[in-house]
Design a protein that fits this description.
Layout (H helix, E strand, L loop, with lengths): L2 E6 L9 H18 L3 E4 L13 H11 L4 E8 L5 H14 L4 E6 L6 H8 L9 H12 L20 E5 L3 H9 L3 E3 L8 H11 L11 E9 L3 H19 L19 H10 L3 E4 L1 H15 L3 E5 L5 H18 L16
């Protein structure tokens, strides 16, 4: 592993509001910078009461302005929701304000339900089918302008904004490999195709000047505390929030409970457990063991830690413990898993 980073969903807690979520976000980012996290990403989601980062570029600016050197970016911008020119202008502006610190991760999903997606896209064609063309168009706006170029991103043209492709299936794995881009898999909430996607990405990767070898990133939920029991209690907030989504009633992040027994049915428990399979919950020793297992399975170049923890001080402590463990894992040599013979054929 080369780096460890942090994904913040700017959680809106029960009894709180977006203003509190943003204050907590910038406070966490300032701590993450001191703890050695490489990058701090925020994600675009819409019509979800428990996530405040819908206007992702605005929140990125707020976080970058409150920190000094940590990379700040999108994990990610859901490109089908936007005209590529608009994103080029937004992130060209961010790069001009905070040079050398801005990342742009791109997702193909809408980041919301279909009704909200239609409200966002209006007359755009954004079904996701044009995603590869949209990425190419976005890249073109970041290049130095040609003398006769009629449409330019101002700011944006010539900006050094590195792109990352995000995904939860094999589609973006193929595309990232073809384009020679870093690839981040959303294993923190959709782990089903993790190993297939990473194998495809590595097998088909085409080196480019900016990236001569694959760079595979995985999302991992990390809930760390002094004891296994306390960490498991903290994680119930995320389990409850996942459960509300499984039931089709997404809400704000609830406070933790002592036990999930009697709250979910066996089928609901299985659904939540499956979606959160790439999660480390426990004391420092327990979390380290789980992270070592995930690195042995994936040989990831970068872990992006995330956590939906209700109490802000407990959330800070969890990410602090995680940073200490992850820093110890940086640089450890782990063999790339065998690529299944059928993958990518």
């Amino acid at each position: 592993m080369k780096y460890f980073s942090l994904l913040d969903l700017a959680p809106v807690i029960e009894g709180g509001d977006a203003a509190l979520a943003f204050r907590n976000t910038v406070d966490l980012a300032q701590h993450a910078e001191r703890w050695g996290y490489h990058r701090y990403w925020l994600a675009e989601h819409h019509n979800l009461p428990g996530i405040a980062s819908a206007a992702t570029a605005v929140v990125i600016s707020y976080v970058a302005g409150g920190t000094k050197q940590i990379r700040v970016g999108a994990g990610g911008i859901m490109l089908p929701n936007h005209a590529p020119l608009v994103i080029a202008e937004q992130f060209g502006t961010l790069e001009a304000l905070f040079p050398g610190r801005i990342d742009l991760g791109l997702g193909r999903a809408p980041g919301t339900d279909q009704r909200t997606a239609r409200a966002l896209r209006r007359n755009l064609g954004g079904s996701g089918d044009t995603f590869p063309q949209d990425v190419l168009e976005l890249q073109s706006y970041f290049r130095p302008p040609e003398p006769d170029q009629m449409v330019q991103a101002v700011p944006g043209a010539g900006a050094d904004v590195p792109l990352y492709l995000l995904g939860s299936s094999d589609f973006s794995a193929h595309l990232a490999a073809e384009m020679g881009l870093p690839f981040a898999f959303a294993s923190h909430f959709a782990p089903e195709y993790l190993h297939v996607a990473l194998a495809i990405y590595r097998r088909h990767f085409k080196p480019v000047a900016a990236l001569t070898a694959p760079h595979a990133m995985i999302g991992v939920g990390i809930y760390a505390a002094e004891t296994d029991t306390e960490a498991q209690r903290l994680a119930t907030s995320a389990q409850l929030q996942f459960l509300s989504m499984v039931r089709g009633r997404p809400g704000k992040l609830p406070p933790p409970v002592e036990s999930m027994d009697g709250i979910w049915s066996p089928a609901e428990q299985a659904a939540v457990r499956e979606r959160t399979r790439c999660t480390a919950i426990g004391s420092p020793a327990t979390v380290r063991q789980r992270l070592e297992e995930l690195l042995d399975e994936t040989a990831a170049d970068e872990i992006i830690a995330t956590a939906q923890i209700y109490n802000h001080s407990a959330r800070l402590r969890s990410f602090e413990i995680a940073s200490e463990i992850l820093a110890g894992l940086v640089g450890e040599k782990r063999l790339t898993p065998q690529t299944p013979a059928a993958v990518g054929r």
